[in-house]
Design brief:
The chain is mostly beta strands and 123 residues long. It is built from no helices and eleven strands.
């Protein structure tokens, strides 16, 4: 059984930083891709970052240069370092695992999801 558990969310002021973690069990990172997806209030889900052994890391334009995705295969964990946070980054952030080895923001390829962690950027 695959299980993904996110942590690290919270309330932060604009310009601040947070580091999200996703602990995975039952999923081999080297055989797939790990993704971060967010859902802002009243909006649909949005894939924002992906990491795979084949493609490295990818980002959508709105977070490029501010967010960094990394993985620790030994710990079966993936992280999202978020800097220079903006109010529009407020969302529930989900970790998702995909069995294809390439990165894609197509949610139909994501096989497993965590329950999410809330990030609120507000003064």
């Amino acid at each position: 059984e695959v299980r993904l558990v996110e942590s690290g969310g919270g309330l932060v002021q604009p310009g601040g930083s947070l580091r999200l973690s996703c602990a995975a069990s039952g999923f081999t990172f080297s055989n797939g891709a790990m993704n971060w997806v967010r859902q802002a209030p009243g909006k649909g889900r949005e894939g924002i970052s992906c990491i795979s052994s084949r493609d490295g890391s990818t980002y959508i334009d709105s977070v490029k240069g501010r967010f960094t995705i990394t993985s620790d295969n030994g710990k079966s964990a993936v992280y999202l370092q978020m800097n220079s946070l903006k109010p529009e980054d407020t969302a529930v952030y989900y970790c998702a695992a995909a069995t294809p080895e390439y990165c894609s923001f197509r949610e139909s390829l994501y096989d497993y999801w965590g329950e999410g962690t809330q990030v609120t950027v507000s003064s």
